[in-house]
Each structure stands twice: as C-alpha cells, then as structure tokens.
Amino acid sequence: MRLRVPLSILILTLLVALLLAPPQLLAQEGLLLAGQVVEAESGEPLPGVAVAIPTLGVETTTGSDGRYTLPIPAQAAGQTVEVRASLAPFQTSAVEVVLSPGATQDFTLGLSFHESITVGSRASGAAAEKAVPVDTIPPVMIETAGASETNQIIQALAPSFNFPRPTITDGTDSVRPATLRGLGSDQVLVLVNGKRRHTSALVHVNGSIGRGSTGVDLNAIPASAIERIEILRDGAAAQYGSDAIAGVINVVLKSGAEPLELDLKAGATTHSDGELIDGSLHQGWALGRGWLFATAEYRDRGETNRAGPDPRPQGSRDPVGQPNHHWGDAEVQDLMGFFNASAPINAADTAWFYAFGGVGKREGSHAGFFRRALQAQNHPQIYPNGFLPLIEPEIQDVSLTGGVRGALGDWFWDASLQYGDNEFEFHVSDSLNTSLGPNIPPNQTEFYAGTLGLDQLLANIDLSRTVDIGLAGPLNVAFGFESRRDGYQIEAGEPASYIDGGFPDQFGAKAPAGAQVFPGFRPSNEVDVTRDSYAVYLDLEGDVLSTLRLGVAGRFEDYDDFGSTSDYKVSARFQPVEQLVLRGAVATGFRAPSLGQAFFSTVSTNFLAVGGVLVPFEVGTFPVNSPVARALGAPALEPETSDHLSAGFVWNPVPALELAADYYAIDIQDRIVLTGNFTGARVAPLLAPFNANGARFFTNAIDTETRGYDLRVGYAFKLAGGRLGLTAGYNATENEVTRIAPTPPQLTGLQEVLFDRTELLRTECGQPENNLRLQGDWDGGNLFTTARAARYGEYCLADRRVVDQTFEPEWVADLEIGYRFPRFTLAAGAQNLFDAFPDENLPANANLGIFTYPSHSPFGMNGRFVYSRVSVRF
Q: Tens digit of pLDDT for each residue in 443-491?
C-alpha cells in the first residue's frame, strides 16, 4: 500500500508544529556568536554569506543587513575554533575565535573566486579548499539566471552540465534527464543538504539523451528554496556511494530567519508561445534559537511548437490545421513546497534536531505522433479528421529527512533517517483503443494507463573528529554506516487502456491492442519489489607536510540482489606557494542497476524509420528475468564499475583573479544500456503471445572511455562606481565505446540490434563535445546587470536516425537588467537574446519536414524568451 497521503500529512504537521510550538520547547538558552559581514572595498553589508564552524557542524547565513547569529553548543564554551565566512565570488575568510558568552566576530570579504568544500572533502578549514574541483553556484547567480527550472539554471552556469529538451518521448517530456561530463543521467549522484536524493520512478525508454536511465528530477526542487548548488566534478563513489561516477551535485537549501518575500516571474517566447508564470513565497522564522525556512512555488510553463506542416494526404472530411504534430516543449504545471529547519534539543546544546523535505505535484501534457484520418490506427467514426493523442502524466513527489547531530567529547556525530517517494501516473487523452472498435459506447477517448512508483528509505550514522598524530596538521577521521531500502512498483492501468478487443482496424487488419500513443501497463507488468543494501566507509584526510595534504577513502557496500562491492579514492593537494595549488586523485566507482532497469516492462508504440517514413511498431520492454528476455538470451544485470583519474591546478596570481584547470579520465565497464528493438521473422514467434512485434531489454552491453578537461577563470574589479565580476568556464569531453558485448546465441546475426548505430552515436557524440560559458555581473548597489554567452559545441544526430548528421556549434546570449528599491526589486531580461536556433534536421531526418530541429539540441528549439520579474520583501 502506498504511503503518499500519510507522508504528506506528516510534513504538513511538522511545519505547523514547528510554527506553533512554544520557543522553550524548541530551544534552551546557550552560547551565541554574532556579527556582521561587509564587503572590503565599499563597506556595504553582504547578505547570504554562509557563516560556519565546521568542527561543530553549525552554520547560518547573513540577513539583508549582513548580520548573523550562530548558535553554539554549550559544551564548546572556552574552546578556540575556526569560524569561516564564504560567499562566491569573495575570498573565504577564516578566523580563530574563543567561544564565550556574548562573543562577536565581524568579517570583511575581499573579491576572489573560490570553490566550496561541502562536498568532496569531509575535512574542515581553509586547508581543505581546492583539494578537489567543486563549482559553487551562489544565490545571486541563481536569482539572475533568467530560468525558473533548477536544471536550466545549472546548465546556464556550469559548462559540464547538459540539459536537452526532448519531445515525443512519452513521460520523458515531463521529466527531462540531465547529464554531467557527457555520461548518463543516472551516473551523477544528487544530494540535498548533503543527503542522498531519491530518483524519479520514470525509466527513460525512448529516443532521448539518457535513454535507458532513471535519474533524479532536479526540477522537483524549487529554485526559490535553494541557497546554493555545489557541483563536485570528480568520481566520489568511495565517499558517497552508488551513482557518483560522473560527479556529485549537492543542493543546499535556504536556512535561518528571513523576512517574507514574494517572487513573481512572467515571460514568453517571441514566437508567441512558451508562456511562463512562476510565483513563489518564502520566509524564515526564528523559533527560539532554532529556525524554520519554508518555500511554496507554483510554475506554469506553456508548450512551444516548432513542427512543420504534414504534407501527406490527410483523408479527412475537413481541412486539418497545420502543423498537426507537436514538436517542442511540453505544457507543464508544478506546485511545490519545501522546508528546512533546525533547533537545539537539550539544555547543554550538545545536540541539534534538523529536518528538511518537500512535497510536489506536476501535471504535464505532451503529444505523440498525429494519427491521420486514413491511418489504420484511426476510426473515422470517432475522429473524422484524425487525432493527436496526448500523454498527460500526474507526478507526485515527497521527501522527508530528519536527524540529530551534535558533539560528544571530541567526536561530532550525525544520525539521520530519510524517506523519498515518487509516483508517475500515466493518463492518455484524445486517443482511442483501435481494437475496441468505433461503435462500443461510449467511444472512450481518455484512459488511465497505470502508475510507476519508486520509494527510498535510508538510515545514516556519521562520526568525525580530528586527531593529532604528529603530522604537519591534524588528521581528520570520518567514518559511518548507511542502511538503504529501495522499492519499485508498477500498477496496471484500466483494462480499456491495454486490452485487445478483437475489433479490426479500419482496413480490416488486426488492430493493435491498447490506447494509442501509450498502451497501459497490464496486470502481467505489475511488480512490487524491494532491495536492501548497507554500506560502511572510512575517510582520512590531513596535512602530512605543510605543503602536502593527502586523503584516503574506502567504502564497502552490499546489495541483497547482486552482492557486494568495494571502492577507494586517494587524493592529493600540493601547495608549493600560496598562490598555486596542484591537485589530483585516483579512484574506483560503481553504479548499482536501478530497480527500474531490472523490473520495468511494458508494450508501447514506437515509430521506426522504414524507407524514410516512420512506421509504428508495438515494442515490448521486458525485464531480464522474464521468460521472453531469457528466451532472447538476456543475462542478469551486474553493477557498472569505473576507474577514475584526475589532475589539475588552481592559480591565484592576484587575490581577485583565479584560474583552474582539471583533466579527467573515466573508464566504465559493463555500462547498462537498453538494447535496440529486436524485430523480424526470427523473434516474431517469441513475441506473438505478448501482442508485440518487437522486444528490447536492459543489459551490461558496453565499456566506455571518457576523456576531458575543465577550465575556469574568474576576475573581479571595481568599474563605474560598482563591482564587475567576470567568469569563464570551458568543458571538453570525448566519449568512446571500447567494447560491445557479443549477442547471445539466440540472437546470432543481430549484433547491430544489441547496441545499434543510433545508440552508438547517442553515447559517443549525441551531446556537445565542448561547452563554453561566459558571464559578466555588474552591481552598482541599486542598479545591476548580468550578461551571459554560451557556446554549445558540435554534436551528432542520436535519435530517429535515417542518415548521419552533425550539428554545428551555436552561440546563445542572455541579458538581464534590474534595479533594487528599498522593499522590492524589478528586473527584465531575455534568454537567447539573438533568437538562435540549432541547425535544421536534414530532409531525410525531418520526417517529411515535420520535425524541423533536433530534439536533443542542448539549448532546445524555442528561440528568444523575454521575461520580467519582481521580488517584494515584506
């Protein structure tokens, strides 16, 4: 039985309880450290600065007046600790403070560019900075990014991140996958406040980047709830576990007491579509010495359509409006709520309770292929002019994390429990089940096609301390334990969505079973499975010399379905002079097969190119343990394994200028892919009982090599009475498939189907081979402006391939100008200012000119988008 409603009520109850509980129940009097953070040159207060004492595990952010109040555990009285203040693009300031009643500490931050160490290192202090490549996206960049979706914000600012906008890909139109360093969407680990985020229930099985994967839906996290985003560009499975092959993205939620703020954004493309309305309310309350920060956001994104006219005879009674297809962004509405809270739980302030999480609902509407009036799948009695069937999913998401952290002697500990749940309901409208005939009343045109569900339950215990063993600095020791249960469910749709009613199509041939565009999940597809795993890790890091810092991490994980795995990471940071840091790491990694990859099954309509025209096929996706997959020779899934090497440097020739370069090599063995569609006379007898004329399954089919490098430079200086910050980032990635597994004996002669040319292109060149991001931010106090330019490199055709095609690089520019008034901020801007579009598909790839642009274009095909926004502080 699903736990959706109880968990939603639990989160709402927690919010109300924290709001209404008397302060004395939430906090006890103890030590406080207070102060103000100002900008070095102007002396102006700096809001949004993170002020932390890493050794005590406490952190807060400055308010609009640059002031902060940091609660301190009572037992820390008299201790000398390092207090750090950080905000990109300013130089992190770290000072030693003796903790005592009424202690204060002010900070003055000078301009620079630095990397956060919240992810990538469990050590604290400035010595651990720049030990690994981590990009930080601060609040001001999130605010001025122009985009409203979290994925689009990251893509605009991080050149190693790719977020295409697929279309006509079933559920993928509503939950669009993103990638890091050109790898799979499920090969990047996503954390929220340092805790693992659950993935989406959707398995991407159609022609998009990320085909065959199940990744995290970052757009389910409202941007208005995010304080900053940290991107670790390094393999980190030994530190954080499965999925951290390409890197780690850590989303840090807003915290502390802040006044109520209302943010509104509205815009549209200059092509008269893609209307956007986005509104959010967020506020932070002081609860004794604790706090609660909550956000509510609503987003309504209208569809865009760049389809060309359909030149084929329509065979309809009346003229069919053109374009009759939809080719562009789907229509989507999101309603989300998130919270983040913390409060002391004992009189001595040695332990603090924390909790965070959210609820969200998304409703989408996106089309499949148009069925013409004279097409076999249509019944003209129902649709005399043909029909465009719609998939209209309802996606619900719940997450809740609660824990306690504190100090016991020299040890700092953190114990937490997490639950995440995602449900993807498929609804089909403007459709029909051809096999039910045209005259069975009522002529059903809407169907419930079933639900995918995923849930995750985790328990973590983490401990750390510093130990003096005679090195140049203290040794940081961290270790912990994780227990995890993953669940996966498929629920069948209503019978009319999948049954074969036996009625022929309009030409007298056998009609396909199920609702057109997305036949429902059948009772034979239903599953309700779980997987248990546990992990232990050890992480050591310290200064073995005054100029050399070494880190060693090891992790052991055991899964009850495929066994255990062990991984390690060794990192080194060498600083021969103050301005230069050399760094490098070697590591191994792994990714456990998702339960969706192991148990997803369905029969759906796929359109394959035959003689230059897309023809429908009923293609079954079968689990590897199913009779059909076994008959086709599918082996059991094994985890992906990987080897990592990285090396680079960070150079600060002057305080306001920073340059960084990192090379990486990632070798992945036994990558899990979804095979091509096995069709034809050889497999037809095996598939006939399942009402399918094609089959595919997941398998460990390939090994790959990824080579690339990242470059980054930042510089800031005073200009025209304000401050100008310039940043540039460049990523180049090359992927190569080095091994393709032999086909099973049952499929001898079908090697090209196991991993076909389309999938080869998708893996090797379906994403840009390089990306450049340029940004300039000028802030004059009240007046401010942001200008960005992005260059998306060359990529190739990776879906619906008829002939090979390479798409040339393209520049995209963004601009925003705004003004801060005492109580509100007004801004206006444009994304894709010069209305750039990708190269058009070649005629053979455009399906008679209908599909004008590539659906995996890294910047979409919407053209110029103009918007205005207002933020009101109450």
A: 799 999 999 999 999 999 999 998 999 999 899 999 999 999 999 999 9
| 826 touches 818 (CB < 8 A) | yes
Question: Cβ of 108: how many Cβ atoms within 10 Å?
Answer: 15
Q: What is the pLDDT of residues 690-729, one digit of tens each?
A: 666 778 899 999 999 999 999 999 998 888 888 899 999 9
CB atoms inside a 10 Å sphere around CB 326: 24
Confidence at residue 866, expressed as pLDDT on a 0 to 100 scale: 97
Residues with Cβ within 8 Å of 804's Cβ and at least 6 positions away in sequence, in order, are 761, 796, 797
What SS3 class is residue 601? coil
Lowest-confidence region among 267-276, 394-403, 721-730: 721-730
**What are the tokens at 275?**
């209307």
One-letter amino acid at 138 equals P
239: enclosing H helix or E strand: helix 237-240
Pull the structure tokens for residue 258. 């802040």
* CA pseudo-torsion sign 610, 614, 620, 622: positive
- Type of residue found at 408: L
Report how far residue 134's alpha carbon sits from residue 88's, in angstroms, rounded to the nearest whole number.
Answer: 12
User: Is-contact 379 387, C-beta < 8 A?
Assistant: no
Q: DSSP secondary structure string, 262-302?
A: EEEEEEEETTS---EEEEEEEEEEEETTEEEEEEEEEEEE-
CA separation for the pair 750, 742 (Å, rounded): 10
Residue 491, C-beta contacts closer than 8 angstroms, at least 6 positions apart? 450, 451, 452, 453, 521, 526
Question: How sure is the predictor about 49, in pLDDT bands with cuts at 50, 70 and 90?
Answer: confident
Q: Are strands 694-696 and 613-621 parallel, antiparallel or unpaired?
A: parallel
Alpha-carbon torsion (519, 524, 526, 530), positive or negative: negative
Which three-class secondary structure state does DSSP give residue 195? Answer: strand
Two tokens, residue 760: 């080869």
Q: Which of 192, 158, 180 has its CA nearest to residue 243?
A: 180
**Residue 359, CA distances (Å) to 284, 336, 356, 528 in order:** 18, 6, 11, 23
Comparing CA positions, the residue from 474, 456, 352, 455 lying closest to residue 413 is: 352
Dist. CA 583–CA 576, nearest whole Å? 11
Express each pLDDT in 143-172 by its tens digit. Answer: 998 899 999 999 999 999 999 999 999 999
Q: What is the average pLDDT across 361-380?
A: 95
In terms of phi and psi (left: phi > 0; alpha: psi -120 to 50; beta: otherwise), the region of 14 is alpha
For the chain, report the end-to-end CA distance as a whole number of angstroms.
43
Beta bridge partners of 251: 192, 229
For 53-110, how does the pLDDT look when each residue is reduced to its tens digit (9 = 90+)? 876 767 787 877 888 888 887 777 888 888 888 776 566 788 888 888 888 999 988 7
